[in-house]
Amino acid sequence: MLRDKGYREGMRILLVGAGGVGDAIAKILARRTFWQLTVVTDYDASRADRTISWIRERHGDETAARFVADSIDASSADSVADVARRHGVTHVMNAVEPKFVPTVFRGALAAGADYLDMAMTLSQPHPNKPYELTNVKLGDEQFDADSVWRDAGRLALVGMGVEPGLSNVFARYAVDHLFSAVDELGTRDGANLVVVDDDGNEIFAPSFSIWTTIEECLNPPVIWEKGKGWFTTPPFSEPEVFDFPEGIGPVECVHVEHEEVLMMPRWLDAKRVTFKYGLGEEFIGVLRTLHQLHLDSVVPLTVRSAQGPVQVAPRDVVAAALPDPATLGPRMRGKTCAGLWATGKGLDGKPREVYLYHVSDNEWTMAEYECQCVVWQTALNPVVALELLAAGTWAGSGVCGPEVFDAQPYLDLMSRPEAEGGYGQHWGLDERTPATG
């Protein structure tokens, strides 16, 4: 069956990128019936073939027949548009590095398709006061194109991963259902994950793209406050110990540049919006060293080799030297938690503090999907959103974040058991004692 009753006819998805998150998206889609065709693409078409081969082995030929592999150049809007047109796709799902967002974004519009991503166009720090003032902010390039997308009658659902994405859904839910007035919407991300070598010793191996992690953690973090707007602060500022649920426990979190802070204030009423990430002392030390050595730079350097001068960006070298996060699952232990901490006045007018969250366990994601938990948790959320779009539950045009749409249907679909048509993913609401004084 290619679609369920109630779904729009013929959702055809172009999945751009078959790396860790793209591979997980395809594997999650394989269990759903709301779509007609998924075109799995990558610059290296063999990676798309690998993903579809796994689906065939796990789910059989009938399911695999709904997937097609193709090659794509995500750095070219023309290539994205050509592949989209060739397969008659209705939705472009961007699962590549943020540096390719502008071209995939434009290519989807040129092809007359709707668009989703999990990370937005990159920022550019202020040239003179990077730790005080913003300059080009995350997502500015996409939000500036809102009227163009509206005029075309097309929807770009941006920042629809886990963070941003699910955290934004939680924020909309908190504003609509839990608070009469919000003081702070603060995304808080933490984990107790470890990666081990063959002898069981812990090793340094980031569980997500180091390219993206460097971008997020070494750029000036952004904070938003009512009456002040967006402003920046030094990396790793205002450390706090946040207690994460389901056995993860206390983790030190610091300010990090992230899309939620640039998204939530556009649609939700709060006095302050922040993002803090639990990095750990070792990880912060490595990032600081990379910065001191200018190995975080994306500006190519000329490197002399036996074949002659070669242009290489230092950050690309760092990424190439570390293990592919998609391969770390068998060596990883523990859980990761993504969530939204909110404070303010409850519906009864009394002080309230809550943490809305979702936890992903690596042991479970490896057993069910052969994906490590960080990339799987990221991949889950755009698939839920695609299903709501297919049903017409979420609908619109222009450049929108998840905050634009009603959060209740999303959380209901996400938590409903798979046997009842949902995704079987519990989300938690942790009531906490509000701070006084």
TrEMBL record:
Residues 161-414 form the Saccharopine dehydrogenase-like C-terminal domain. Residues 13-156 form the Saccharopine dehydrogenase NADP binding domain. It holds the Pfam family Sacchrp_dh_NADP. Gene3D superfamilies: Dihydrodipicolinate Reductase, domain 2 (3.30.360.10), NAD(P)-binding Rossmann-like Domain (3.40.50.720). InterPro entries: NAD(P)-bd_dom_sf, Sacchrp_dh-like_C, Sacchrp_dh_NADP-bd. Transmembrane segments: none annotated. This is Unannotated protein. It comes from freshwater metagenome.
